[in-house]
Amino acid sequence: MFRNLNPGAIGIHADIETVLKIAHDVGFEGVDLPLGEAKKLSQEHSTDFVKALYERFEMRVGGCGLPFNWLKDDEYQNGIKELHGWAKLASELGCTRFVTHVPSFSDERPYEENFRWHVERFKPIAEVLGEYGCRLGLEFLGTKKLRIGHKYEFIHTLDGMLELCDAIGTGNVGLLLDSWHWWTSGGTLEQIQKLSNEQVVYVHINDAPSGIPVEEQEDTVRCLPGETGVIDLVGFLRALKAIGYDGPVTPEPFSKAVYEMPAYDAALVTAKALNSVWERI
């Protein structure tokens, strides 16, 4: 596994060359692929030009988000068609990990109906990605407050998401495992230790504010890795290391203080926080 930067997760909005240089200078080992910018650069120059940027700064390619809103019917069919081009480009650039999150509730469909709907929705996506050697990581949302006020609950645990991945049945769908959602869902280290590397596509890492009961935690108020020690991130990473996880580990602190910092400072403080945990595993 490697220390990876998603610039948007810490409020950095800059071109890929700038991001790669910052990531290199502060000690990250990888950077997520901005698909839209990569497509533009590939058209203006070539895919080799984009690959050379990553190589110049000795950065690995992390992952990328699905390039369309799969929840919206009016975007879905066209999104599937265009996904061929996006997956081909990503694969050529060494990015084989696509990710998205799955809402933990529905106001329209009861659980079983919603489960079948998600299988039908994700299977064509996974099939297209599979044609280009790509995988799909699905994130479950464990935060209890996200489900309050909605008619039906949906998947919000590791085991529940594994069931969905298996039901999709394409062999290239696994977890986007977020330490926050693992913790807020009541997840255990033993759950992670039972996984295989193939079942984990991508990892988010963050800590939680102290002095707040887990059921009262706000989803968008988090902390840098190791900032409070509320979440056992050393155990979390050790468990991932033990199963041979070989993908990105990306901080997603949702920190107002970090968002307000200059780009370099935001990356530096985030890298230092991640390293404080990393060195202990």
Helix-strand blueprint:
Layout: E1 2-5, H1 16-26, E2 30-31, H2 35-44, H3 47-56, E3 60-61, E4 64-65, H4 73-92, E5 97-101, E6 105-106, H5 111-131, E7 135-139, E8 152-153, H6 158-168, E9 173-178, H7 179-184, H8 189-193, E10 200-205, H9 233-242, E11 248-251, H10 256-259, H11 263-278
Parallel strand pairs: 1-2, 1-11, 2-3, 4-5, 5-7, 7-9, 9-10, 10-11
Antiparallel strand pairs: 6-8
Descriptive overview:
The protein is an alpha/beta fold and 281 residues long. The protein has one domain: Divalent-metal-dependent TIM barrel enzymes (TIM Barrel). The protein has 11 helices and 11 strands. It has a 9-stranded parallel sheet with strand order 3-2-1-11-10-9-7-5-4. Strands 6-8 form a two-stranded antiparallel ribbon. Helix 4 runs parallel beside helix 5.
The average pLDDT score comes to 98
CATH-level-4 superfamily name: Divalent-metal-dependent TIM barrel enzymes
Tell me the number of structural domains. 1
- Biggest beta sheet summary: 9 strands, parallel
Would you tell me the structural class of the helices and strands?
alpha/beta
Query: What percentage of residues falls in helices of 4 or more residues?
Result: 40-55%
Task: Tell me what portion of residues adopts beta-strand conformation.
Answer: 5-15%
CATH topology: TIM Barrel
Low-confidence stretches: none
